[in-house]
Design brief:
With 640 residues, the protein is α+β, with helices and mostly antiparallel strands. It has 16 helices and 18 strands. The protein folds into four domains: 140 residues, 2-Layer Sandwich (Beta-Lactamase); 110 residues, Beta-Lactamase, CATH 3.30.450.20; 104 residues; 143 residues, Histidine kinase-like ATPase, C-terminal domain (Heat Shock Protein 90, 2-Layer Sandwich), CATH 3.30.565. α9 runs parallel beside α10, α12 packs across α14 and α14 packs antiparallel against α16.
Length: 640
Amino acid sequence: MIRRISTKWVLAVLAAVVVPFVGFAWYVDGKLAHRLSWDVVHYFLLTRAADLADQIDREVLRQGEDVAGWAGDPLVGWCVAVDQGEEAAFDEVLESRFNQLVRSDGTFDLLLAVSADGEYRVSNTRDGHDQPLPSETLERIRSRDYRVADWFRRARSGELVRIDHHAAPLLFPGAASQPADPARRHVGFAVPVRDPVREEEVVGVVLGLVGWDFYQAMILDARRRDYFQGLIGADIYSSTYAWLWGSDADTILAHPSVEILGTRVSQPPVELPQLARAAQAEDWAMYPEYEFRGALKNAAFKHCRPDSERGFGWVVGIGIDNDDIYATVNELRNLLINATSLLLGVVVLWTAFIARRTTRPILELERHTRRIASGDLDARVEVATDDELGQLAEAFNKMTADLRESRARIVKAEKEAAWREMARQVAHEIKNPLTPISLSANLLKRARDEGSEDFDRIFDRTIDLIQRQVANMRSIASEFHAFAGEHEPKLRAFDLNELVEEILDLNAAWAEELGVRVVVEGEACSAFADPNDVRRILINLVSNALEAMPEGGRLEVRVSPTEQRARVEVRDTGTGLTGEARERLFEPYFTTRTHGTGLGLAICKRLADGLGGEIDIEPVSEEGGGTRAVLSLPCAAEPS
C-alpha cells in the first residue's frame, strides 16, 4: 500500500496540513480546558441542586394542597359530621372516591377521614395499583383511637399539619425498626374538615400519607438524569448522584445507597461532620471538598422550604467525583479531536479523489490486464486522455487485438486438426469393411462371367458378407454421430429391473454360446432418465463383459436403490483391466480390442453425464481378473 502513488500523495498532504492543526488543538486543550472546568462544574452543581430542591418543594406543596382540596369536599364534611344521622349513606360513595384519588394520583398510600371525636369514618380500601389493602391493615385503621395522635389534635384545632419523614404505624406497625426501607416510611398531611354550613366549625380531619419511596425515586431519577446535558455530551458524569437530608441537615432521608438511610452524616459509617456544619451554616452553597468511599468529591446543597413556608426544610445535595469533573476537559478535548478528525477526513477524501482521478487509468489498465490473463481478449481500455497514459492505453488495446487474432488462428488450426483426425478415423473405420466387400464383389463378377457352377453359393455368401459389413458401417456411423452430435434426453420414470432383463434376454444366446453363466440380483428399483440412453449404456457394458470372457465365466448383474440414486452393477470374471486401460477407458478412440472404433465407453460416459448420473469401471481385485462397472442414475422418487 505504501508504494502506491495515491498513498504517497495522501501522506504528503497530511504532513503539510494536519500536523499544524494538531499542534494548535494540543495548545488549546492544555492551556484553556483545565482553567474552565472547575468554574463550569461548580456553577452547574449549584444550579441543579436548586432545581431539585424546587422540584421537591413543588411536590410537597402540591400534595398538601391536594389533601386540603379533598378535605373541602362537602361530601367529606357530611360523612365526618358527628351530628349527622345519615352519614353512613355517604361512606360507600366517599370510599369509592378515595380509592379513585389514590389510584389517579399515584403518590398517596392512605387517605383517611376521621370525625371530630377521633372516630374512623372512611378511608381508601385499595392501593395505587388498584389492589385491595390487607384486611389486618384495614382493621388497624378502623379500630384506632385517633384522639391521642398529635396530628389529629393539631388539625382538630384548625391547623394544616405537615408530618415529616416517619414510620407510619397505621400501615406498617414495625416500620420504626427498619429505617433503611423507603417503602415503610411516609410523610403526611392532616387537614381540618369544616362544616359545610357553619364553616368556622371543625367537624373532622382528613389525613393523607405519601409513601417515602416516591421521594427516594426522585433522588434516584436525579442520579440517572444527565444534569450537564446541553453543555457537554450525555453520560460523561457517570458518578453524579443526589441525596436528601432531614431539616436538621444531618439525617440521611434519601440516598442511592439505601443501607445508610436513617444514619447521621456526622457519625459513622458516613462520618463527614464538616458537611453537616456547612449545610447548617448556609442555605445554598458548595460543600468543602471531601473524601467518601475512597474517592475525592465536590458537591453543592440547597435547603428546601421551611415549615413556615409550607415545606419540610429538607436539604438537597448534588455531588460528583473529582475524576469526573475533568469530563469538561475531556469534552473539549473530544471536540478538538472531532474537529481534527473532520479536517483529516476532508483532506484525505479530497486528496484521495484527486489521486484516484490521476491513478484511475493505471488501475483500469491493471484490471483489463487481469481480464486478458483470464482469457477475455475482448477487453478494451477506454482512452480518455492524450497524455502518456492515453498512449499506453492505445498500445495496450493494439496488443490485445493482436493477441485475439493470434488466438483465433490457433483455434482455427486446432479445429482443422480435429476434423482431419475425425476424417482419418472415419476413413479408417469405413475402409476396413469396404475391402472384403470389394473382393467379394469381384469374386461374384468373375464367377458369373465364367459361368461357375458355384455361382449361387458364391452369390449367397457375398450378399451375406455385404449385408454384415453394411450393418457394421452403419454401426460405425451411428457411434461417430452419437459421439459428435447433439442429443437431448427424454426423461421419464421407468422400471430399471425390466430394462436389465430385456438386455440380458437379447444377449442370452451369445452368453450361452460363450459358456457364460448369467446371475441377476437386486431389489425393485425405478429410475428417472431416458430409457433409450440407459439401454445403450447397459448394452455396451454387457457386451464388453461378454467379450472379456471368450472362454466362459460368470456375469453378475445387481440392481439396487441407494438413498436418491438407482444403481446397476455389472461384474464379470474376464481378463480384467491393465493400469493404462483403466486410466484411458473413457478417452475417444481408445480400445484394447482389434476391432471397433474405441468410442463405446466415451459415448456411455457422455450419456450418463447428460442424464445426471455417473459411471465407473474398475478391476474387481488389484491382482487382476474380473471387472466391475457401476452405473448410478437419479431415482424416480426425486426427478430433479
